[in-house]
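Lecture notes, unit on protein representations.

Consider one protein chain, 464 amino acids long.
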Amino acid sequence: MKMPRNLLMIIFIFTAGVICAKEQTLTFTEAANLAVAASADLRHSRSSQAVMEGAWKWGIMAYLPRMSLTISENDRLQQIGADSFIKNYGINIDQLIWDGGRTAMSRNLERMELDLSLSRLDRTAREIAESAIAAYRSVLSSRAILEIKTAALSVLEEQRRILNEEVKLGLALNIDLAGADISLADAKLDIISLRLDLDEMEKQFAELLGLDYLPVLIETVDIYRTASLPSSPAASALAREQNPDLIEARHSITKKQMELNYISRSWIPSFRLNGNLSLSGQRYPLTRFTWSVGISVEFSNPWFQNRLGAQTGWEPSSSGQYDRTAMIQNGFTPLPDPAAHYGRSQAKLALALEQEKYAITIERIGRTAASAVEKCALAEQKRILSLEAAAIGSERCRIEEIRLSLGYVTRLKLMETLIEQTQREIAVIQAATALLEAERELERLLDLEPGELSVFASFLAYKN
């Protein structure tokens, strides 16, 4: 049965699309961006941050007049007395004139809290990106180790085949063949276990990126790459300047200082201007109006609270004429909140604690940065030694093959030597991966992007 041409074309296009999709590549940077974009918690946090930012913008209304409208119609019907129909429409305006800068400081405190929240969001995003990069490197390392072990298994299987022929010819013992079989079985089990772990690792990596399958990983673990490191004093100085923990601690100190200033200014009185205009009457159009304008002063502290207000205006009198009015009001409340007296002391203690924590943190970060440089240097030395050990092991394998041809060693001994060489080659991969991880840890301390450590070290070398 012949398939329709259009159906064949659709199948071809779909297959080509799938092949192209599966050939998508992935770099370290792309993996980090995908992981950040796929995090549902991070998206929710950013949405919440946007809502809080919007609410803070509306806080500008504190500087603008507060206006309220009142509309009431009070219709009263009575059996004996006269019915009354009273209608009232009013506008009330209240405007802050001065409060010692407390409103501005309150908004600044809210702004600093939002900045701290945004800084924590950025830090969370960086941690998610770092987890993606770490997973990427783990997959690369496991794949490289699997490749080494698979290649070693092929060599061991060839040696076992030759050993089997030698046993048939009487040139080797059956016990050697049994030992070779055990070594092969161990190598196969090791490869199966590694493949299972690698499959699970790749699935978790793809899930972290929000993908159904893992694209082609084009990054590699370069075992021959030489580390370029800054000096310990330079790393410590840069860490003290722009480490994320220290930046957040500085923001926290500034916030505590503003809180102390806010509490210290609580005794300053606030002045407000208020006005009122109302229309009233029994029927439309309303003909009776009342207006007033005044100012109020409020003193507030833990020991007393006093509100003094004065206003003047016009209002209709009982004779139908309009009367000029003036009114002074004073309200006094003793001991409204005596416990608030200790608020300033608590703010001072909180500021002193933040400053002390900052001093401890800055010293710790400096030492940690210097230790991280030393750790990178040790990781680099380990990589070099691992390469040298692998080179020596390779030469030893060549010598063992010569000794085998001369009859000094058995083929089983050669297989054992090859297995030892496999472990040395794996150690090289692990050492190179450990160096990458140590460098990235130092970059995070210095708030550098992946790969910027060598640029920073080169800049210092050029500057000196």
